[in-house]
Amino acid sequence: MTIDMFSLKDYVVIITGAGGAIGGATAHVLAEAGAKVVISDLNLEAAQKNADEITKATGQETLAIKTNVTDEAQLQELVDATINKFGKITALINNVGWGESTPLWGVSTDYMVKSYVLNTVSSYNLTKLCMPYLKKEENASVTFSGSLVGTTPSPEFISYSNAKAALVNMSRSMAAMSGPDVRVNTIIIGSVDNGAATLEAGYDEAMLKRLSDSFVMKRRGNPKDIAYAFNYLISPAASWVTGIELLVNGGGIYKSKMPTGDDE
Ligand SMILES: NC(=O)c1ccc[n+]([C@@H]2O[C@H](COP(=O)([O-])OP(=O)(O)OC[C@H]3O[C@@H](n4cnc5c(N)ncnc54)[C@H](O)[C@@H]3O)[C@@H](O)[C@H]2O)c1
C-alpha cells in the first residue's frame, strides 16, 4: 500500500536539537509514523519533556539525551547510548543550528569559526560516527537542516549563512560517496516560526511581517511543515532520493518579479 511507503516502523532515528521547535516537531511526527526517536539536545529538560510527550501520545519508546554537538566525546556518548538502548541507527537528522544577525564586516575569526563548528563541523563528526551503523540498515539515511540563507546572498547573517552554504556541499559530497548504502539529503528550510528563538536571532515583528508577506503562501512555516518533509526523505518512499536539496519554504523564492499584469 502506498501509505506503508511513508511508514517508519522499526526505524531508529537520532535527531539533534530535538528539544527545539523543528527538531521537536520532527521527533513527534516520526514517532507517529512508527519510529523510535532519540531526542538529543543541549537542553536536557526540553529534550526530556518532548520525549515524555511523544511516548504519551504515540506509545513509542523514546530516548532523551543531553548532547553538546560541538563536543566529540558527547557525540560518541550519543551514538553509544542509542546502540545500547535500541541496537541500531536507521536514520540521522543533523538538525542543530543557530545564527544571529551581525553587521557584514563586524564578525571576528573566532565568531566565524564557532558558527562553522556548530552548524557544519558538528554534523560532519556525528555523521562519521553513525556511518558504520547506518551502513548495516536498509534504506538508511542522513538528512541535514539547511537554510534558505545558505542558498541566497544573506549579508545580514554572514557567518550563519556561510556555514549553512557549506553544509549543502558537504551533504552532496557525502551522498556521492555513501550510496547505495546510505542516502544523504538536505532540507533547505525557509522562515519557520520557532517562537522566541526567531526574535533572539535579530528579527523584529516588522521584519517578520514583511517576510510572511513576501512568501507565495503568505505565511511563515510551522515546524510540522518541515517535520513532514523529514518523514518523506527518511521513508521507503524516498529510497531513490539522494544528494538533493529539498526546498520547503512557502514558495518564497519562486515569485517572479516580471510584470504580468496580475501583480497588485
Ligand atoms: N526556524 C527557522 O526559521 C529556520 C530557518 C532555516 C533553517 N533553520 C534551521 O533549522 C534547525 C532547527 O531550528 P529551530 O528553528 O528548530 O531552532 P530552535 O532554536 O527552536 O532549536 C534548536 C535547538 O538546538 C539546541 N542546541 C543549540 N546549541 C546546541 C548544541 N551545541 N548542542 C546541542 N543542541 C544545541 C537548542 O537547545 C535548541 O533546542 C537549525 O539548524 C536552524 O538553523 C531554521
From TrEMBL:
The keyword Oxidoreductase applies. It comes from Floridaenema fluviatile BLCC-F154. Keywords: NADP, Oxidoreductase. InterPro entries: NAD(P)-bd_dom_sf, Sc_DH/Rdtase_CS, SDR_fam, Sec_Metab_Biosynth_SDR. Pfam families: adh_short_C2. Belongs to the short-chain dehydrogenases/reductases (SDR) family. This is SDR family oxidoreductase.
